[in-house]
Design goal:
The complex is a heterodimer of chains A (51) and B (280). With 51 residues, chain A is mainly α. In chain A, 73% of the residues lie in helices and 0% in strands. Chain A has one domain. Chain B is built from 15 helices and two strands. Classes of the chains: A mainly alpha (51), B mainly alpha (280).
Chain lengths: 51, 280
């Protein structure tokens, strides 16, 4: 019972990390990092309450 | 000499605050950092329009990509949040979030301290779904671009870290102040007052990042464990928890920020925080 719970937890952690790496690589590959950079290096008028 | 979690955590919080906001000279000219580190997201909430900020805000970045012309789902930011969540869970809030540290410092101001009704804890999930996930995609302009609704209408971190300093430095920006800025200043003032009276008021009620990381507390590698054989049920851990969690009953509670106060308080050493499981 405890072993099953531990195995399930391990599976969820490993699966979560694998999906995270795949998502980061895929997002980076299709150019999402450029959108993040462009947004982050210009003053965000919405954030400061003007936009 | 052995330091407790309160000292270790405060030290790491200060280091994380410094690393997140390293470009202090930008305050002088009212500029923001425009280097390549802003390709990457800070694990905690830190406005990228803060002059000192060195990284992108994950909530702002998520809304920016989701609301962009080309994409309506950000794999990149979701992947980063997933990685931070699986490894650390809400320890990000407790140990790494710059706005979390500010809230804790505000709570040190002497005043009557209040408890929070549980029903309010669910508000942050509503904020996450409506303002971060739905509005930037659903409400778009003629070009198909959505606005970061959470940043625009709620985020007090942006008002404080970005708005106040940039508006102080630029007369041109000050001329653009309108009703929206008044609304955001009102939210900031309520947040400051709330944080003085209630521990991590914003973190617990409104923060969408806290809501996301809270969902990972059940599986996060950095976790809290209670040894049922050692625990004598004295309840000290529950009494010292400022997030109002009972670590014995709910060690993986979505509200636990892994601050370690319960670990320091336990006379039986039954409570433990760590990356690995207890042996035996």
């Amino acid at each position: 019972m405890v072993d099953n719970k531990k195995k399930r937890l391990l599976f969820l952690r490993v699966a979560g990390l694998v999906i995270a790496v795949v998502f980061i690589c895929f997002g980076g590959f299709r150019g999402e990092m450029n959108i993040v950079l462009n947004k982050a290096i210009t003053i965000c008028f919405e954030c400061i309450g003007l936009g | 000499m052995r330091f407790g979690y309160s000292v270790k955590r405060k030290l790491l919080q200060l280091i994380a605050f410094g690393c997140s906001n390293a470009h202090l000279l930008n305050f002088k000219g009212g500029k923001i950092y425009t280097g390549k580190w802003k390709y990457f997201c800070n694990p905690g909430l830190n406005c990228y329009s803060c002059p000192a900020a060195g990284f992108a805000c994950p909530i702002g970045a998520l809304q920016a990509v989701n609301g962009s012309m080309n994409y309506s789902f950000s794999f990149y930011v979701t992947g980063l949040l997933l990685a931070f969540g699986v490894v650390l869970g809400r320890a990000v809030c407790g140990w790494l979030c710059p706005f979390g540290l500010l809230q804790e410092l505000l709570h040190k101001i002497p005043s009557p301290k209040l408890k929070l009704k549980k029903i309010f804890l669910y508000l942050k999930y509503v904020v996450l779904v409506i303002f971060v996930l739905i509005l930037p995609i659903a409400v778009t302009d003629y070009m198909g671009m959505g606005k970061p609704a959470f940043c625009q209408y709620i985020c007090p971190a942006g008002t404080l870290e970005g708005g106040v300093f940039l508006l102080a430095a630029h007369e041109g920006l000050r001329k653009s102040i309108g009703a929206l800025f008044t609304l955001k200043m009102a939210i900031l003032l309520v947040t400051i007052l709330g944080c003085i009276l209630i521990y991590r008021f914003f973190c617990r009620i409104l923060c969408p990042l806290g809501a996301i990381y809270g969902l990972f507390n059940k599986i996060s590698i950095y976790h809290l464990e209670v040894d049922e054989h050692k625990c004598n049920g004295c309840g000290k851990c529950k009494r010292v928890c400022q997030m109002e969690v009972d670590p014995v009953k709910f060690p993986q509670s979505a509200e636990c920020i892994r601050c370690g106060a319960c670990v320091d308080a336990c006379p039986q050493t039954a409570v433990r925080l760590g990356f690995c499981n207890r042996k035996g």
